[in-house]
Design a protein that fits this description.
This protein is of the alpha+beta class. Helix content is about 55%, strand content about 20%. It folds into five domains: about 1-155, PAS domain (Beta-Lactamase), CATH 3.30.450.20; about 210-250; about 250-345, PAS domain (Beta-Lactamase), CATH 3.30.450; about 350-425, Orthogonal Bundle (Helix Hairpins); about 430-580, Heat Shock Protein 90 (2-Layer Sandwich). It has helices at about 1-50, 55-70, 105-110, 145-200, 215-250, 270-275, 290, 295-305, 350-385, 390-425, 435-445, 445-450, 470-490, 520-525, 535-540, 550-560, and strands spanning about 75-80, 85-90, 115-120, 130-135, 140-145, 255-260, 265, 285, 310-320, 320-335, 340-345, 430-435, 455-460, 465-470, 495-505, 505-515, 560-565, 575-580. Helix 10 (about 390-425) packs parallel to helix 16 and helix 11 crosses helix 13. The protein is rod-shaped, with a radius of gyration of 65 Å. The chain binds adenosine-5'-diphosphate.
Length: about 575
């Protein structure tokens, strides 16, 4: 750029000098012509004056030449008569000269009576001459001089012009070189810094020239302050983005952003985990459906973008942990001129499961309550219809009604216990007691039922106390439910073994073992569910509610523990409860 400007200036200067030279040449040339005219005219007038004073033409002519002659001007004078014959010539023999009436300047002077002039090559001298013819009454005085005489001044002017021109070019070239170096170095530096910044080195700065008062210095200073601002702004932006990413990553729900044609533009850390895709949307385009495998999610995002409203739906979506229910919310966002949507996935699988369990539970409870109630109402009806008058029958019916009422009572009791456990936490009514003592109490309490079935209860415990801190009632409930089951579902003459020990500083293990019929593998997982029984009628006959093991499991969970069963059909069952008490 600078080189081009410099070349332009040089060209303009060159042309200007050239034009000035030509104009000067022309002006000087005209001036010289006029001066030559005046010179010759003056000489002619002097000769005219001498002739008029009576001098001989030769003397008059030579005297005039002598007055005007100088070293540079080779002057010639020719006195011509009106008829054209030459009377005298200071440079040639007049007798040998031809008639001059046809010479243009002489012809003109003779014809008009005014001074005539002409430039042409002289036949006599053989070079370009300026001729001037002054008419008098009888003669025509013609004077002439070689053009070279005054042109030499012009040539010297041209020579001087050329020298000046060359000097100007030399000076221009020199100053140009210095200027180019002086201006382009900082510009080059500026260019290199800009490239470094473009390539990511935001700390690159321009060197400030020593002379800090010129334009380049102020340009460099301005550039550096602009670079400083740019670096700060970019750092601030990167900082903000990092903070925003951290916020979005800390959200426990998966969050996705989509742009045009539902292409994913952002995924938070949870979205990457849940959908098992560690992608970088800035590197490539990923369609939403490829990430979520859910057409419904894509349609929801499109609806949010089209209607500019937040829309939501409960959808079943495949995740890394299998199919789950999500409350998917799509909200429209406007990033620049482009439409987009932000989609959040709130996992409602647990809530759904809890909801299902609640409705299953209500259905089960209703069913379990209805069975004894129907039975009671049936027997009451039968009694009313006359059976009351038959004492034997009436007594049997009343006994059944009593058993059913007891079953209802037991059922309601168990439901209330479960409800209580679910609402409680382990710290409520915690007390310090001896677990060995509690086990002995339970064995005594169930002794009658055991004897009825000829089942023996053996308590296997170490000497001394086994002190624990927990709710005595809850732990007693565990022991009662497990031991009662071990008796209830045992064979006649069977055995039940109860033991408890401390396995860690804060862990107790309770084991209730029997040598009854055992539990088949497929039931072992499910017997801790509410109302699950292996054999419904057996459980009913044995007075079971189907909630005993569910209560055991919930109490164990209350103490950060677990309830497990190990059993082989025909070899008995072993229930192990671990509790952090
Ligand atoms: P129930 O009130 O019917 O006893 P539980 O929740 O206590 O309900 O037990 C669930 C089911 O597990 C029982 O119906 C029974 O079929 C089975 N079960 C529990 N304990 C034993 C055991 N010791 N031996 C064999 N089966 C058992």
């Amino acid at each position: 750029m600078l080189k081009r400007i410099y070349l332009l200036v040089a060209a303009v200067t060159f042309i200007a000098v050239l034009i000035t030279g030509f104009v000067a040449f022309d002006v000087v040339s005209q001036y010289n012509d006029q001066a030559a005219h005046r010179y010759l005219e003056s000489m002619s007038r002097l000769a005219e004056k001498y002739i008029a004073e009576g001098s001989d033409v030769k003397i008059a002519a030579d005297s005039s030449v002598a007055v005007f002659s100088n070293s540079t001007a080779d002057l010639r004078i020719t006195i011509v008569k009106r008829d054209g014959t030459v009377a005298y010539d200071n440079q040639a023999d007049a007798a040998g000269m031809d008639n001059h009436s046809d010479r243009p300047e002489i012809a003109y002077a003779a014809r008009t009576g005014e001074i005539g002039s002409a430039i042409r090559s002289s036949d006599t001298i053989g070079q370009d001459m300026l001729y001037l013819a002054l008419p008098t009454d009888e003669l025509i005085i013609r004077t002439s001089m070689p053009l070279n005489a005054h042109k030499s001044a012009l040539y010297s002017l041209v020579r001087t012009s050329v020298i000046v021109l060359l000097l100007v070019i030399a000076v221009l070239a020199l100053t140009g070189l210095i200027l180019v170096k002086y201006i382009t170095r900082p510009l080059k530096d500026l260019h290199e810094t800009a490239i470094a910044m473009r390539d990511g080195d935001l700390s690159a700065r321009v060197l400030i020239p020593d002379d800090d008062s010129n334009e380049m210095s102020s340009l460099a200073l301005t550039y550096n302050s602009m670079a400083e601002k740019l670096e700060n702004t970019l750092e601030e932006l990167a900082d903000r983005k990092a903070r925003l990413d951290a916020i979005l990553d800390s959200i426990v729900d998966p969050v996705l952003a989509v742009g045009e044609r539902c292409a994913v533009t952002f995924m938070n850390a949870h979205a990457k985990n849940v959908f098992g895709r560690n992608i970088d949307p800035e590197q490539a385009v990923y369609p939403l459906v490829l990430i979520t495998h859910s057409q419904a999610t894509e349609e929801l995002a499109e609806e949010a973008m089209e209607t500019s409203t937040t829309v939501s739906e409960e959808l079943r979506i495949k995740s890394e942990d299998g199919e789950k229910f999500y409350h998917v919310i799509a909200s429209p966002i406007r990033a620049g001129s482009k439409d987009g949507a932000i989609i959040t996935f709130h996992d409602i699988s647990q809530a759904r499961l809890a909801q299902k369990m609640r409705s299953d539970f209500v259905a089960n409870v209703t069913h379990e309550l209805r069975t004894p109630l129907t039975s009671i109402r049936g027997f009451v009806e039968t009694l009313r219809n006359g059976a009351v008058n038959k004492p034997d029958v009436a007594n049997r019916f009343l006994e059944i009604i009593d058993i059913e009422a007891e079953r209802l009572h037991q059922l309601i009791n168990d439901i209330l216990i479960l409800a209580e456990i679910e609402q409680q936490n382990s710290s409520v009514d915690s007390e310090r007691f001896d677990l060995n003592e509690l086990i002995d109490d339970v064995a005594v309490l169930l002794d009658d039922i055991a004897s009825e079935k000829r089942v023996s209860i053996a308590v296997e415990q170490d000497e001394g106390d086994l002190l624990v801190s927990a709710s005595r009632n809850r732990i007693e409930q565990i022991m009662l439910n497990l031991t009662e089951n071990a008796i209830k579902y045992n064979n006649e003459g069977g055995h039940v073994y109860i033991s408890a020990c401390r396995t860690a500083e804060d862990e107790i293990k309770i084991v209730v073992r029997d040598d009854g019929p055992g539990i088949a593998k497929e039931h072992q997982e499910r017997i801790f569910e509410r109302f699950y029984r292996v054999d419904r009628s057996h459980s009913r006959d044995a007075g079971g509610t189907g909630l005993g093991l569910a209560i055991v499991k919930h109490i164990a969970q209350l103490y950060q523990g677990k309830a497990e069963v190990r059993s082989n059909p025909g070899e008995g069952s072993e229930f192990t409860i671990t509790l952090a008490i």
